[in-house]
Design brief:
Two copies of one chain form a homodimer. By secondary structure, chain A is α+β, with helices and mostly antiparallel strands. Helix content of chain A is 21%, strand content 40%. Chain A is built from three helices and six strands, in the order E-H-H-E-E-E-E-H-E. The two termini of chain A are 24 Å apart. The mean pLDDT of chain A is 93. The interface between A and B is medium-sized, with 32 and 33 residues.
Chain lengths: 126, 126
C-alpha cells in the first residue's frame, strides 16, 4: 500500500450569511474551534479584514495548517485543512459549517506526499 | 462559462537536499521570492522550525495564501499557492523549485469557488 505524509481537505462552502463571513472575531473563533475539534496544536494565527469586505485567517499548526478565506458578497468561504500524518482532518469542518450556517458544501480530499510503493519483505510458507 | 473565485495549486516536490529544507531562513526567503514572482502582496508571514527537523511557513496574502511545509528526512516539500481572482499562481512555483533544487514535482491545479452558471440574457435575431 502506498503511504502518504498528510491529508488535505479543500472545502468550498456557499449560502452563508454575509454578516457572519465579514466578522473577523467570529472567523478567528471558528478557526480556534476547528483546531480544538481537530485535536491539533496551534502555533500561530493571522487574521486580516479586507476593505470593503472579506476576512482571511491562516493558522500555522504543529500538524501543518488551516486557512479560511471569506467572500461575504458571494456568501462563500474557502477552507483548507491540511493535517500531516494519520490525523483525520474531517472533524475540523464541523465548527466552520455551524458557525457560518453553511447551506451548500463541497469537500475535496487530497493525499499529500504520496510515497512510492516499497515492496514488503514477506516470508511465505511453501 | 462557469466562473471561479480563485486558483489553487497543490505542489508536492521530492528529491530535495535535506539541509536546504531544514533551514528556516532559506524557507522564509524562498516564500518571499515566490510572492515577488507571483506579483502578490504579503500581509503576514509565520515561519516555524520543528524539532528534530522540518520547517513550516504560512503567508497571508492580499490574494489569499501561500503555505510551505518541509520534511527534510524525506527530501520532500508540500507547497500551496492559492490566489484569488484571475491571478496566475504558476510563476510563484519557480523560486521554490530553484531554491530547494527539486528533483521530482507534481502540481495539481484546482479551481476554488466555482460559481453556478447563470444563463446570459441574449437577444437573438429572428
Amino acid at each position: 500500500m502506498k503511504k502518504c505524509l498528510g491529508t488535505h481537505l479543500l472545502v468550498d462552502a456557499w449560502d452563508c450569511p454575509g454578516d457572519l463571513l465579514d466578522d473577523p472575531e467570529l472567523v478567528a473563533q471558528a478557526v480556534k474551534d476547528a483546531i480544538r475539534a481537530g485535536d491539533v496544536t496551534l502555533i500561530n494565527m493571522s487574521v486580516h479584514q479586507f476593505s470593503p469586505q472579506g476576512v482571511t485567517a491562516t493558522a500555522t499548526l504543529a500538524e501543518s495548517h488551516i486557512a479560511l478565506h471569506t467572500w461575504p458578497e458571494h456568501g462563500y468561504l474557502a477552507l483548507d485543512i491540511f493535517f500531516c500524518g494519520n490525523k483525520d482532518p474531517r472533524p475540523a469542518i464541523g465548527p466552520i459549517r455551524r458557525t457560518f450556517r453553511v447551506g451548500r458544501i463541497e469537500v475535496r480530499k487530497l493525499r499529500r506526499g504520496i510515497q512510492v510503493e516499497t515492496p514488503e519483505l514477506v516470508e511465505e510458507k511453501l
